[in-house]
Design brief:
Elements (H helix, E strand, L loop, with lengths): L9 H5 L2 H4 L13 E5 L2 H11 L7 E9 L2 E6 L9 E3 H5 L4 E6 L5 H14 L2 E6 L7 H7 L5 E4 L5 H8 L3
Parallel strand pairs: 1-2, 1-5, 5-6, 6-7
Antiparallel strand pairs: 2-3, 3-4
């Protein structure tokens, strides 16, 4: 018996008028307020390249240093634009998602500081590990206790697709 694939639109066309009244015709999603934070210089390069694109409420940042009770971040600017600084506590106000991007040199202290601050505010965290010449074990170990979702990317270019899927 030869099977035909189910087309994505088949279910929508097969619905009766009575079934169609249960469809939601509102916009699919509200705007996100995501923070994408690079934890090391390899991640900062990749995040900086993506920062110049059009996003839906995402702020792209780079972890600089810990300051008493907070962290100093710099804005990831693509295309050689000047960078400004911000405090983690200010950036997390109103945020609904924090995505930490780490290369092999990611700091466990930075991941812990960001993860704890997000958890205290009830913000969902994700950790994305970039592949590189060095083993990613250190980055995975740094992010594992501090991210609700942890993904080791197969290619740095995959970061764009993951962030798009998260609606950053």
């Amino acid at each position: 018996m030869d099977r035909q694939p189910t087309l994505l639109g088949s279910c929508a066309r097969a619905a009766t008028a009575a079934e169609a009244r249960f469809r939601i015709n509102a916009p699919a999603f509200t705007q996100r307020c995501s923070r994408v934070i690079a934890l090391d210089e390899q991640a900062a390069e990749v995040v900086g390249d993506l920062a110049g694109r059009t996003w839906h409420g995402g702020h792209f940042l780079v972890f600089e240093s810990e300051v008493p009770g907070d962290a100093l971040l710099r804005l990831a600017a693509g295309g050689g634009q000047p960078t400004a600084t911000a405090l983690l506590s200010e950036e997390l106000d109103g945020a609904d998602t924090v995505v930490m991007v780490a290369g092999p040199a990611a700091s466990p202290a930075a991941a812990s500081l960001i993860g704890d601050a997000a958890a205290a505010r009830g913000i969902m965290t994700a950790g994305l590990v970039l592949p590189g010449a060095a083993p990613v074990d250190g980055a995975v170990a740094a992010l594992r206790p501090n991210a609700m979702v942890l993904v080791v990317l197969g290619n740095s270019a995959d970061l764009l697709e993951v962030l798009s899927a998260l609606r950053v």
